[in-house]
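Chapter review: from sequence to fold.
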Amino acid sequence: MHMPASNLASAPSAVVLASGRTSVATRRLIGTAVAICSAGLLALAAYLQPSATGLGTHAQLTRVQCGWIVLMDTPCPTCGMTTAFAHAADGHLLAALAAQPLGALLAVATAMALLIGVYVAATGSRVGAMFGRLWGPRAAWVLGGLVVSAWIYKIIIYKGLLQ
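The token string follows.
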């Protein structure tokens, strides 16, 4: 997009779009949204009573048992994540890891997102954009591997194979 120099002063949004940068106001708005969503998720997790069995905490929200366990007597890939978040929100990170390792990692990542979101909302910093650049094909493969690994762990624990 080419604009004459005389039009640049009257069209700051075009300059922002052309340079690929976001305005301070936009960064603050995004930071606020991230902080609110993260705080809401962690507050909900703190409200829940973690299940002693390492799964089923979500039933306090939905009253529905995991369909995979009902049909196949095997936990689904996300079984235990709500329990892990509830433990982590209560400050019990080892219990969160035992319930669902990926859930514990995601709970810590959510707390970090809350802190970064508050910082960006308060300062307009570009630090949040740095984390967005971390996402790519390699990160997707790592996340997929973590999902599968945590799922295998949960199956082993559920079936009582690790005692």
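Two observations follow directly from the output. The two ends are 64 Å apart (CA to CA). The chain has one domain: 25-125+135-158.
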